[in-house]
Amino acid sequence: MIYDLSLRAAGFIAGLFLLLASLPGLLMPQAASAWFRALPRSRLMGVLLLTIALLWSFWLLWTMEMGEFSSFRKPLLVALPVGYFLVLRFVNEFLAVRALGILFLLGAEPLLEAAFLRYESSRLLVTVFAYILIVAGLFWVTMPYLLRDHIQWSTRETGRWRAVNIIGVLYGAVILFCALTRY
């Protein structure tokens, strides 16, 4: 096990993430939709999210057991920062989306690990959320314009924007409720 995260902690993290991502869309719909529309091309958010992804990846590579591949640890520890600076230098389009996709891929693993071999059927709430993160992360890293299209589609109409955020708030609240009562 790479992470020592309980299902309760994973439920809190997933639920709070969904609430924090969706509540602004309900409470301040105009400001939140404008911020989300600007996110895909935001250089500042791209650098911030990519830096978080670098630090997380570096920590993982530094601490995890690699078995027979442990001889690759030092070259990879050098390649990560080099790749980080090369991406900052040469990837200008949708850097924030690609970095967010990387973070989604990194974040899904602790959620899946926490739900592994648990018998509560409510664990599937966390598992499904983790697989949603994986699918979204894979698409956003390889085809980042899709997030821009998804944001444009969901913010085009007020009712649609409200529905998307209500679904996020409800899903986050159900996961938090299960984290408090079932896990």
Question: Would you mind describing this structure in some detail?
Answer:
There is one protein chain. The protein has 183 residues and is mostly helical. It has a domain at 7-41 and 94-181. The chain contains eight helices and no strands. Helix 3 (43-63) packs antiparallel against helix 4 (73-90). The longest helix is centred in the last third of the chain and has 24 residues, at 158-181. The radius of gyration is 18 Å and the shape is flat. The model has no long low-confidence stretch (mean pLDDT 93).
Topology:
Elements: H1 7-27, H2 29-38, H3 43-63, H4 73-90, H5 95-115, H6 123-142, H7 145-155, H8 158-181
Helix pairs in contact: 1-2, 1-5, 1-8, 3-4, 3-5, 5-6
Beta-strand content bin: under 5%
Could you tell me the number of beta strands? 0
User: Which structural class fits the helix and strand makeup?
Assistant: mainly alpha
Radius of gyration: 18 Å
Number of helices: 8
Features:
80% helix; 183 residues
At a glance:
This protein has 183 residues and is mostly helical. The chain has helices at 7-27, 29-38, 43-63, 73-90, 95-115, 123-142, 145-155, 158-181. The protein is 80% helix and 0% strand.
